[in-house]
Amino acid sequence: MNQKPVRVRFAPSPTGGLHLGGVRTVLFNYLFAKHHNGTFVLRIEDTDQTRYVPGAEEYIVNCLEWCGLAPDESPQKGGNYGPYRQSERKPMYRQYAEQLVAQGNAYYAFDTPQELEQMREDFKSPENPSPQYGHAVRMKMRNSISLGAAETEKLLAEGVPHVIRIKMPEDTSISFTDMIRGEVSFSSNTVDDKVLLKADGMPTYHLAVVVDDYLMKISHAFRGEEWLPSAPVHLLLWEYLGWKADMPQWAHLPLILKPDGNGKLSKRDGDRLGFPVYAMNWTDPKTGDLTQGFRERGFLPEAFVNMLAMIGWNDGSGQEIFSLTELVEKFDIGRVHKGGAKFDFEKAKWFNHQYIQQKSNDELAALLQPVLLAKNIAADAAYVAKVCALVKERCAFVNEIWDNGFFFFEAPASPDFSPVLPKWNDEKHGFFGKWIEILRGSSSWDAATLEADFKELAANSAIKPGELQLPFRIMLVGGKFGPAVFDIAATIGKEQTIARIESSLLLIKNAIAS
Ligand code: GLU
Predict the structure, then answer these.
(1) Residue 143 buriedness (CB in 10 A; 0-12 / 13-18 / 19+)
(2) Enclosing domain of residue 165
(3) Mutate to test the pocket of ligand 1, among 209, 218, 249 (most ligand atoms within 8 A of CB)
(4) How far away, in angstroms, is 59 Cα from ligand 1 center?
(5) Catalytic pick from 4, 90, 267, 494?
(6) Which of 122, 161, 303, 474 could form a disulfide with 352 if both were Cys (CB 3.0 to 4.6 A apart)?
(7) 297-342 pLDDT tens trace
(8) What pTM does this model have?
(9) pLDDT tens, 414-441?
(10) What separation in angstroms does the CA of 442 have from each of 435, 438, 450?
């Protein structure tokens, strides 16, 4: 470990919704920073104006906020190394690109889009279907290396549009030590002469990421595995700019894979298989398409974060439920697996279920209130908490508290008596008539008394209580579901219980008559 103060960054491009893989990158950055008393920076990499999507930055910031992983420095919060949006840092980059040209590590390239297209056509071969701009074709293109100093001066003086490209060396092995993968090497021949500075003076990602990691004194850079192929370019830039000693230690995080088949989990897989992939709801401003997020699907942020931590990491003990504080304490980037992990939505639900069970009934009641409000149901907090206590065990999501307990708030709209109609008779009808009388007169309204009275009446009527409990349940909730029936009656109260039995007896009578 180098001894510099720990400073890490999450550097998203504001191009759309935040994928759960992105949130995991945030999380690992955050955990590492907090574990080492360091600083977590959010830097917005918006140099590619063609991919910029309005609203995406604000959305990312809100996602981090929701997850409880807020950065210490960011465009919103500021800090000593701002600005934190690359577009606002535009004037800073050119000098470094020019330095590289002056040193002979980069060059001006004047090729037009048509010329680049032509090159791809001309050099295409079965072995090389998409030829790249590199040492093999460099001398055949229009750049400061092929044209020479005088012609280059002339074109620059005329203001001919140009980019600056890195001059990749030939036959050179480029390697570094990744904190997860260990020694990683590349051949320079596999990498093209990437553009560093675009014609409009905006840096590309490759230049900007190196300059900013340097200027922002980033000590460790964690990012998705998809960036590994770019690492050799970045390594050379660190070296050519004379900053090698300050290069952050890198860790390339394994991908989160599709549950079925191969490859990275995509939003499309989520749509196809019916689960969210983005942290929060995202509406594409161009198409208006809404993609559901984990938050809106009903995930608690603590559960979402815990679940993400366990994709590709564990502390070796078999423990799966960790609070954020515990994760900060235990997290070790070296223990992150190299291989990608398949995403398992059932497991994600398991985590949420665990966290729902951990919540107090009052906390759950507070979470359920907005759901009730949306249905125009006003219920006092103590009552809602009682309902939560009865149904939470069956619930992986707050919304499921409603699904499993709606009948605590409203009478079932159309109870399904079909399971009991075939065996219905006058004795049973008579039983429920007497049951109503007993309920009217009862002075203590609790589940145990109700159950005892119910069973006593059943015995006196010579009907097995089992034959009567199902109809009673359907009367109260509308079907064959719900927690213990006497708990339900005790909770909804005398008036509702009696009203539901009465209306049910009518419904049953009509059903039998028709
Ligand atoms: N801007 C890159 C992205 O959108 C960041 C890659 C990196 O962290 O170096 O993922």
Answers:
(1) buried
(2) 88-253
(3) 209
(4) 17
(5) 267
(6) 303
(7) 999 999 999 999 999 999 999 999 999 999 999 999 999 999 999 9
(8) 0.90
(9) 999 999 999 999 999 999 999 999 999 9
(10) 10, 6, 9
